[in-house]
Amino acid sequence: MNRQKHITSFYIETIVMILIFVMVILILTQVFGASRKESVEAMRLTDAVCLAENAQTAVTASGSASELAELLDNGNETLREESGQTVIDCFYDRDLKPSKEGAYRLTVTWKQKAGQEGFVPGTIEVYYQNEDLPTYSLDTGVYVKGVRP
After folding, report:
1. Which of 31, 71, 108, 116 could, after both became Cys, cross-link 58 (CB 3.0–4.6 A)?
2. pLDDT tens profile 37-91
3. Beta carbons within 10 angstroms of residue 136's beta carbon
């Protein structure tokens, strides 16, 4: 009878340990899954900030929207007018190289009116794939002295 109790106790302890082990595995799986998702989002944000910084440098060196388009020239930019502002779109792949089928879309809005001198505001937005909200947005500007052709 005493031997039977030991065997029963052993089985109960084994079942409890297995249940605890399974619970720990489930919790760790959820933690690793969530950390992977956060890691991917952080990578996208880092890439978006890098693209925005590069565009900011081009904006700072520009005196007009056409000059900005030339500086951003990567073979796939488009220049369009929208609400009296010039908008430049460029596309980049996941390695941040210019690509017509890129994962990232960089949009620079140049808010200069014809003949305007002084501070010209702008907005830089980086979108991931076809998302409606930008991954990163940066308000910027440049001082323009005189009107450049």
Report:
1. 71
2. 999 999 999 999 999 999 898 888 887 777 888 888 667 777 788 877 888 888 8
3. 21
